[in-house]
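Q: Hi! First time doing this. I have a protein sequence and I read that you can turn it into a structure. Is that right? Here it is:
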Amino acid sequence: MTQQKPKKAIVATINYAGFEFPGLKLPNGAYAIAIPQIVDIYARDNQGFHPSKNTASRDFKRLLGKGFRPSKIATEISNAKINVIDLEVFGLINIQMLIKGNKIALAIAEASVTTTLEQAFDIAFDNKQKLEQYQAKQQARIQGKITRRTLTNSIRDYVTAKSDVLSDNYKKFIYNNCTDAVNRIVFGRSAKKLKEAWDCKDVRAAMTIEELMIVDSVERLAITLIDDHSFEPQTAIKEAGNRLLIKKIER
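A: Yes, that's right. Below is the predicted 3D structure, encoded as structure tokens:
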């Protein structure tokens, strides 16, 4: 009698919410994520709470209690069995990570609100081209949100360090002023003017993929200038625009 080979999970690269990670399809057709991959995802927030690979199963058990039910399975790329959880349990973990302030969990939660529903419509109407475009823009949007939060943290740290010499007005308006500084570099107009011109309530939601990527590049460099070279935030943004040779977009 021929002995059956052990069933293994199929591996594929998943792109979601601006992140890329290996996903699993179990022999029963269900989708799952390996616990080490989950740790890697949340560890991208290197300032907030995230589990350790050495204690991940215990950390997640502490978060979910009986709701945490990992299973072990080998994959098509390795005979070594790994701990995995299904997408429903991952969703529960993400809620708890969000409560603890992990900014990656927030990005995933924001993506889940819109991506799943819109994809369902696109799949129903077989709109493959729109689905691909939406996914690309969503990834750029989520990456931009993560960069924006990091920039906000950098500005906050600068204000805290210079608190004794900064005016109350500076502290009150620096975040909005920095947002407008980015908009003026890329588009030549403030957020208020862009909302009027584009007839929108959310400027970044109205940007194209290319525009989101340009804004993100300016803010990323500004973060480096603030954190590593002690630039004043608005000066850092202007310097980032100059170094990147940003040309104003007219539309």
